[in-house]
């Protein structure tokens, strides 16, 4: 199994790169983030408009919380019910949390987890403005969540797990935190085919959700190996990165090979259950 991130950076360095980039992003408007490639002016990575979906017609949408950073609409597929406890991994400024809160209602609970202090501050600021009492934000690592076991009915995440160095550990944590009978719906970026080396090795492209992505079949295998059942891809779309961005990292010859080999970068929304029994053959 090829672990892309070990080619370039140690785990601690990866997390620092992500924190640094997303701390800058949170200080900008959605328009500023969408008009520059990784959301940081002058950066040479991927424009988030390539990935992001339109939230504006969803109940609970709050413009201040939408930084244009997602690659799907996991709450739309997450089968959230009134009164549920929902955890959002990599909650950012609170966008998906506020959408989930509109579904769970006053009797439910929504917890956002993010490892970037600036994002947590922004999310709490947005929550205070809205006056919500049942939306919480916690500073923490997805690979070691600040949440007790069997807490959530539903877990959602939007274009975040690709940034996590140890994805197997992250999905093991998701399994631990979900209640028996709970489930997740996660939007993320995956690959079909090997990326050119310079794309895989670049820290900016890692923060831009590309070089941290792994093969789709490997991603789904990690979920299954964590103990989840009924693993289903709810939505899939190919992400087309413009040639002018790719050519900042690879040569024209490499670009031609990239296209000839039909290497694909995809946004998927994947669902899976944690069954409500412990039997091996369920």
Question: Could you explain the architecture of this structure?
Answer:
- This protein is an alpha/beta fold.
- 34% of the residues lie in helices and 21% in strands.
- It has a seven-stranded mixed sheet with strand order 3-2-1-4-5-7-6.
- The radius of gyration is 18 Å and the shape is globular.
Summed up, the domain count is 1
Highest CATH level, the class: Alpha Beta
Largest sheet: 7 strands, mixed
**N-to-C span:** 28 Å
CATH superfamily assignment? Vaccinia Virus protein VP39
Give me the number of helical elements: 12
CATH topology group: Rossmann fold
Secondary-structure arrangement, i.e. CATH architecture: 3-Layer(aba) Sandwich
Count of β-strands:
7
Give the averaged pLDDT, no decimals. 82
Strand line-up in the sheet with most strands: 3-2-1-4-5-7-6
In helices, the fraction of residues equals: 25-40%
Structural class: alpha/beta
- Alpha carbon gyration radius: 18 Å
């Amino acid at each position: 199994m090829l672990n892309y991130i070990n080619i370039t950076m140690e785990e601690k360095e990866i997390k620092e790169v992500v924190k640094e980039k997303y701390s800058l992003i949170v200080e900008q408007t959605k328009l500023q983030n969408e008009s520059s490639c990784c959301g940081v002016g002058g950066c040479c990575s991927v424009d988030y408009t390539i990935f992001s979906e339109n939230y504006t017609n969803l109940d609970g949408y709050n413009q201040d919380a939408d930084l244009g950073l997602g690659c799907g609409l996991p709450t739309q597929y997450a089968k959230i019910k009134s009164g549920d406890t929902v955890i959002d991994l990599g909650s950012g400024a609170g966008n998906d949390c506020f959408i989930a809160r509109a579904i769970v209602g006053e009797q439910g609970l929504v917890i956002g987890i993010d490892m970037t202090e600036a994002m947590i501050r922004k999310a709490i600021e947005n929550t205070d403005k809205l006056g919500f009492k049942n939306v919480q934000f916690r500073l923490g690592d997805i690979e070691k969540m600040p949440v007790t076991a069997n807490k959530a009915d539903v877990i959602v995440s939007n274009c975040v797990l690709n940034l996590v160095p140890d994805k197997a550990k992250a999905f093991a944590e998701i399994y631990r935190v979900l209640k028996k009978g709970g489930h997740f719906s996660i939007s993320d970026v995956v690959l079909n085919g090997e990326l050119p080396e310079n794309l895989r090795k670049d820290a900016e492209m890692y923060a831009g959700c590309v070089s941290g992505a792994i093969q789709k079949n490997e991603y789904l295998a990690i979920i299954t190996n964590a103990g989840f059942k009924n693993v289903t891809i709810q939505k899939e779309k190919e992400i087309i990165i413009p040639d002018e961005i790719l050519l900042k990292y690879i040569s024209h010859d490499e670009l031609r090979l990239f296209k000839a080999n039909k290497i694909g970068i995809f946004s998927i929304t994947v669902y899976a259950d944690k069954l409500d029994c412990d039997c091996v053959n369920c």
